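Components:
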Amino acid sequence: MKLILIFISAALINNFVLTYFLGICPFLGVSNKSENALNMGLATTFVMTLTAAVTWPVYHYILVRYNVPFLQYVAFIILIAALVQFVEMYIRKSSPALYRALGIYLPLITTNCAVLGLALFMVLRDYNYIESIIFGFATGVGFTFAIFMMSGIREELEFADIPRHFQGISITLIIAGMMALAFMGFAGLIRG
Amino acid sequence: MADAPISLWHEFKKGLWQDIPPFRLVLGTCPTLAVTNSVENGIAMGLATLFVLLCSNVIISAVRKQIAGQVRIAAYVVIIALVVTVADMFLAAMFPPISKALGPYVPLIVVNCIILGRAEAFAQKNPVLPSVFDALGIGIGFVMSLATMGVIRELLGFGSIFNFKILSEAIFEPWIVMILPAGAFMVFGGLVALVNFISHRRSSGIIS
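Structure:
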């Protein structure tokens, strides 16, 4: 039951993009086409799940054990960068078609603050191993959800008559604000 | 060398308007949105970022010739992560309430695109002194942006500035939405539009 709650909470109620403002850069940058947005979302979900799976043992069995938890930021960022690199190499070998689809987005994931944020929240909330993996996956699903919806709205916006100074980033942010309002509706799903 | 002071001044000044980070470059958006629900948090976050940016720019421009091109991004990230660790521990020791309010957003300075962006775009190509001015300009521009967001959101959301009540509740109903995430996005969007508007006016010569 707790796992389901973690999933719903991370994917919808406390959506990383719309309530914690993590991962805004790709959210604004790669959301102009639905197809790209979906690919970016899937790649990020994949990396997030792996990140949760790898950073948890490193934090609990290496950093805590040798009493150096203050090194967590350095350790996490190196792990994430290495992980992204390995994922990129693996996909290039195993599935060139997928690599072409995701190619340019993969390196960008290293600097996606949602991935580092995920590792930090995981430590902060004291999740156990299974909970962490669910949390990582759910966060990725939430990110995919937000970026995919945004891209759908932005595709429609191309035909809209927007005041000149609001074009581009500005209107996108205002729409994101409205999406954040809409997502607040999910807050009633979980009590307490 | 005669124009050295002018170009240093130029490096400093460009961060204040021409390249002001969140509104023009749209970098560092996460902290801009997340911690600006009060002026105090916004300024604290801005100063922490300024400190990290200054240190990382100095270190990176000092060692720029020792780092091989292929591994430079990884090296920069490690340097930035170390500086952020220092900043985080300093905040936690000296200003516990602020450190608590900012929470995980202090460690997230590591992935703030402004810092890596300046390292890549400026510090790796320039000597230490111009890098210092570049960091100060961009950093102060960032502090100003966060403070502006904070003033608007705190004034409209709580009717106060620096926790000091300005609009009394008898005449002003606080806009709760300004404190919520939705308000952050909307204020940011509005400010980007305002910056576009002013710079468009400037370039067409209506105001100077």
